[in-house]
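Field reference: sequence -> structure
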Amino acid sequence: MEAGIVGLPNVGKSTLFNALTGSQGAQAANYPFCTIEPNEGIVSIPDKRLSRIQDFIKTQKIIPAMFKLVDIAGIVKGASEGQGLGNKFLSHIREVDAILQVVRCFEDPDVIHVAGKVDPVADMETIEMELMFSDIQSLEVALPKAERAAKTGDKEAKLRVSAIQKCMEHLNKELPLRLLQLEEAEAKAISSFGLMTAKPILYIANVDETDLQGKGPIVTKVREAAAKSGALVVPVCAKLEAEIAELDEPDRSEMLAAVGLQEPALQVVAREAYRTLGLHSYFTAGEKEIRAWTIPVGATAPQAAGVIHTDFERGFIRCETYSLADLEQFGSEKEIRANGRMRTEGKSYIMQDGDICHFLFNV
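Structure field:
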């Protein structure tokens, strides 16, 4: 699973990407389209539960959950008509599973704003409209083909026509597709289109150092606008976070305390992006490693086992699982078993966030 980080040019998108992924290199230039080809990086998910497990199960290493982040070039008004290499950039968004949109909530005369003024809500609307226009174009191209196939009696094509028409009607009301409820079969029929406004979105408000908590009037307006499409907002000072990310742990803690933060905002972004992707984690724990494994919310025990190895899913017998609360109460797996708290789950078990598991399989 991967998320694409988008925004207008010069909103701090690449600075945030570099800090999140630990990318090195020269700072991006202060002009539009300094990112042309998308950069990719891996983001680890900070999870204090891993170290809490290690308090009871000593291990050689800890491996956190991760996801891929793609830094996509700045989108401008008219992108759906080819402005600013827009069609090329929009095609990159089609390939990701969720969108992280950075909106500029800071004033800086040295950083050019393509619209000439700082107005994050207008920026959000610009991006959303360009994605909607592009989705409409995709559907207009797909509809005639689907209609021709439907005339032959193809049931799937008829379903596709119905779904396309519903989507176009919704988009023509200037509403993103993430607010449209389609039947599961309808959604599947058009899943290959990569419709961008159907993707979940998380807004990242790039604030200045005077509003790190995002409680000022500008971010408040961003939250109100985001709520209309059911999206969350995370305030981040990308410039400050980039500086913090380069520090050693003692200096990092000191700087966080100095600015009144309990943890880097990047950690909040990573966790919220993970949730926006519809993901959560389960754990395996032993002498060699304690590891967080990434699975979609709603995954069954065999599907979760398959993330470790396909043989685990193919030959799944059962899952033995317990919670971190159990481990902290009883102190060891042996005592968890002795107190009857080790659960045995079968093929239909829906994995819960934070399950600590052993899988039994036979192939």
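Note: The first strand starts at residue 2 and ends at 6.
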